[in-house]
Amino acid sequence: MTTANGGEVRSPAANGGTKPFKIFVGYDPREDLAYKVCRHSILKRSSIPVEIHPIIQSDLRKGGLYWRERGKLESTEFSFSRFLTPHLANYDGWAMFVDCDFLYLADIKELRDLADDRYAIMCVHHDYTPKETTKMDGAVQTVYPRKNWSSMVLYNCGHPKNKVLTPEVVNSQTGAYLHRFQWLGDGEIGEVPFVWNFLEGHNRAVEGDPSTLPKAIHYTRGGPWFDAWKNCEFADLWLDEMEEYMKETKKSSGN
Fold it and tell me: Which Gene3D superfamilies match (predicted)?
């Protein structure tokens, strides 16, 4: 089912009328296919109702929610618009933001079940310093504290501290303030196991230790939808998911 604002809802049988879990996915026209495959990977494995919304910058501008100029170091159109997630969720309940370059390998319910009301947000606390100077299709690779923490975040949208994230703040604050979560104290940032934001090319699965196997792969350097990254680690998993998505799309369109 498609909602009026472009989101997709999946309502598994026997959900008892459970409110859908809202998921906001960063969207960039250069990565349209990545977004569709990410969405497919979530919907395919979810045992709970979910509502998926792409964060499309042009739509936000038309709606008067986003007006800041794009900086030279912004590698995607959602570099800052991602922080509108609590506002887009009406500052109510838990919602998730995730970059479009993710591939989910596990049921999103497992991640949703980690949500802890003691925290304003929850994410993977990466210690990540990339070796590359460029990523994706030639975008500048930047290095800063808490890098990649904001690429997948569970937001406790009703938390008083997150009401700071108004469109005015998101459009005016610095990258450091937003990406380092400086509106929060350290104790208000909960931690999620790294396997839910498993960085391709950085994190490693340990043989014989299932707790290190990725549940969501993040192609943060660039995924196989870019020519330069066609042979990256886990490219085969993404390509398999893409082929499945394509077949289902073709079947549903009757072609």
Answer: Spore Coat Polysaccharide Biosynthesis Protein SpsA, Chain A (3.90.550.10)
